[in-house]
Here is the input.
Amino acid sequence: MPEAEPRPPATGATHNLLTLPNMITLARLCAVPATIWLIVQRRLDLAFLLFVAAGISDALDGWLARVRRARSQIGALLDPVADKALLVSVYVALALVGVLPDWLAILVVFRDAVIVGGLLLLWMIGDRPEIAPLLVSKLNTALQIALAAVALLAVGFDLPLGGLKAALIWATAGSTLASGLAYVAQTARRLRAGAAP
Here is the structure.
């Protein structure tokens, strides 16, 4: 589940929603409330399986979009929305049931809110930045996915992964903070450049 990285529409891409890759993406989006419900009900074993299935579907819809030449502007928008909705929801739900620290869930949500706010600010001044994740952001996304999977697996299947989970918590926190600051610095540079005479 890559970090907000829309797939570039191929030549001739349409606004057609009813393509197979888009249907898979929509199914992943619909999996968000089911995953939250499973976590709240303490069925983290099933939530883990659904989380893994969502990851597989993410790779599958991208592959199908390429091989079937079925890329669309709608799909390019829906894909990162579905990925981010699932990941953020899992963090919030895991914090609510005490599996992950609440401060980490707050940090993850706040970082995304800051990034979206920065993009909206740039759009308001007429800047239209290309949405391309930074290297630190890609690392952060990988760590966030790994931590969510390990937390669900450890508790859901009663596996002794506490040491790994603790290490991933701090690595995820550090990369979340670093990537958030990197986006703030990038946005500040663009704002200064836009304000320059």
Residues 162-195 form the longest helix (34 residues). The mean pLDDT is 85.
